[in-house]
Amino acid sequence: MTADGETVAETAETVQAAETVQTAEPATVDVDRALEAIFMVADEPQGLVALATAVGRPVAVVRQAIERLVDDYDGVAPGSVRRGFELREVAGGWRFYVRGDWDGLVRDFVTTQNPSRLSQAALETLSVIAYKQPISRGAVASIRAVNVDSVVRTLLSRGLITEVSTQAETGAILYGTTDLLLTQLGINSLDELPRISPLLDDGSEGFDETGQVR
Q1: Is the pTM of this model over 0.85?
Q2: In the UniProt record, does the keyword Coiled coil occur (predicted)?
Q3: Which of 67, 100, 133 is a domain's end point?
C-alpha cells in the first residue's frame, strides 16, 4: 500500500474512533439520567437487576452509573458539589435519602412550616401502622385494600412514621411510628393507644395475626 493509502487508512481509523467516543458519551449520560428519574419516584430501594431491566442496560453498566452518581452527589467527582441528598445502598438496593447533615432542618420544615392536615386516607394508614408496627407497605395495602404508596410518602415526610427495619424474607421495608406521633397524640407510649375493638361492629380484638380486622 502506498504512503498516501496508509495516510487515508489512518485518517479513517481516527475519524471512526472519534465517532465512537462521541456516541459513547451520550449513552453514558442517558443511563445516569434515566436512573435519576427512577430514583426520584422510588419508594423502596431498587436492586441492580431491577434497575438494569428498567433502563435496558447491563448490570455492570448500571453499577458504574450508580458509582458516578454517588460521587457526583457526594461532591467527589471533579466539578461536582456535595448535595443535600445522597444515593444510599440499603437492604440490597439503592434509593435517595436526605443527607444526615440536613435531618434537623427537614424535620423542622415538615413539622412547623408545612402543617397541613392529614387526609382521611393518611389517618387510616397511620392507624394501621400504629397498631400493627413494624409493618410493610404491602401489608398495609392489603389491610386497607388500596394502594398506599403516596400516603406512606406523606407520613414519612411529616415525620410521623419511619423505616425501622427490613423483612428478612423479602427485603421489604418495615415501618413504625415516631416519637412525634406520641407528642401529637399527647401520650407517652403506644400502650396508651385505645383498643380499637369497641369501634368495630364485629371485632373483639382488633387485628389478627394475618392483619385482618376481627
Answers
A1: no
A2: no
A3: 100
